[in-house]
Amino acid sequence: MNININNNFDNVSENYLFSEINKRIKKYKEEHKDADIIRLGIGDVTLPLGQKVVDALIEASKEMGNKDTFRGYPPEYGYDFTKIAVKNYYETNKVNLDLESIFISDGAKSDLGNIVDIFGDNPIYIPNPVYPVYLDSNLMSGRKINYIEGYEANNFLPMPNDIKDNNCIIYLCSPNNPTGATYTYNELDKWVKFALESNSLIIYDSAYEAFIKDNLHPHSIYEIEGAKECAIEICSFSKQAGFTGLRSGWTIVPLELESKNHSINKLWKRRQATKFNGVSYPVQRAAEAALSKDGIKECMDNIDYYMENAKMLSNLFDEKGIYYTGGKSSPYIWFKCPNGMNSWEFFDYLLENVNVVGTPGAGFGTFGEGYFRITSFNTHEKTKEAIDRLRKVL
Ligand code: MLT
Asked: What's the total number of domains in the chain?
């Protein structure tokens, strides 16, 4: 073949972070067939779906098997019943959303990766460390990236102080993946003010908002005054309702967002109508159920379970006096690798010595080098066992 390929792919790492981790685990398992590996790596849930969600899936599947209630293509932007469920969910945080601003997706990752389609060349600002999708998708589109740096002195919560550009696209993730660090109302207010003053757009990833249990940290950027004029918010049912295998999320593109006489909402509609055929009816009924009163209660029970794991893991780092963030409004614990090891060295060290898998901080950006992320998504039993193993090597 002699076709030109997208050379921007030369600028991304050969493997996506979690594919690289799986590759290494597979190789280790081939060489150590009896290894009892405990996975605290990718943030994948282990508890089953709540009963309300399961009931909704069954009921909707039955409807699909009946000629009177069968449905074909779903609306590209989501059924009204799912959008209304999202709208009502936001109202619990006193955020009033226009139904037209809500887009039901097959998960936050897709929309976070696809949103680049609707923008031209702008200064891009991405936290470092952060979820790798923002960086990779912008690199694949040939964008030049600037970093907003997270480190211990700013508690891994970069602020806009050093940004000199105007008209930027800024990615923020709070509670942050991977550090678990979470912006307060006051800090997020500074970001919104900065975006409004500099004519910039914030792409706000709130996939872990359901883990916030206090009144100090906003669940949505739209709790901040002015955010509808400068922010898109992308969220997920994955961690909140255990949909990692079911796939659904939502994106809010406010009608107020306009640039150079273009409605951003209309651009996203146009993009989705061309490249996306919507989320299946049973999954949208399941999503609706997850956001019902009883559904939320079931989801919160699961989140409380994971947060008990987070507490047990945090206690270990407190006991050892090791620096960490997260574990409070987040299922992730982010800590400094011991003995000056780099992140991948520590990954191999843990895998080989105690058969525990985590995620190397360097996979989330250069400022993650020397740090490591573990999740609280495993069972209590496996988490306790992992803690006993980690205690021996930390
Ligand atoms: C993670 O472990 O960072 C997440 O599970 C990845 C994702 O949500 O795609």
From this structure: 2
What CATH number should be reported for the domain holding residue 76? 3.40.640.10
Domain CATH number, residue 344? 3.90.1150.10
Q: Tell me the CA–centroid distance for residue 42 and ligand 1, in Å.
A: 6
How much is the pTM?
Answer: 0.96
Give the model confidence (pLDDT) of 242-257 as tens digits: 999 999 999 999 999 9
42, 332, 378, best to mutate for ligand 1 pocket (most atoms within 8 Å of CB): 42
Cα(206)–Cα(210) distance, rounded to whole angstroms? 9
User: pLDDT tens digits, residue range 277-288?
Assistant: 999 999 999 999
Residue 121 · residue 143 · CB < 8 Å: yes
Is 361 a pocket residue for ligand 1 (Cβ < 6 Å)?
Answer: no
Indicate whether residue 247 lines ligand 1 (CB < 6 A): no
Residues 278 and 175 in one domain: yes
* 50 C-alpha to ligand 1 centroid (Å): 21
The residue among 292, 327, 353 that closes a domain is 292
For residue 229, the enclosing domain spans 51-292
Residue 177 CB–ligand 1 contact under 6 Å: yes
Q: Do 352 and 365 belong to one domain?
A: yes
Which of 383, 240, 370 is CA-nearest to residue 309?
Answer: 383
176 within ligand 1 shell (Cβ under 6 A) = no
Token pair recorded at residue 209: 């908002």
Strands of the 249-252 sheet, one edge to the other: 102-105, 249-252, 231-236, 201-205, 169-173, 124-128, 145-149
Nearest CA to ligand 1 atom 5: 43
- Report if residue 96 sits inside a domain: yes
Q: What is the pLDDT of residues 223-232, one digit of tens each?
A: 999 999 999 9
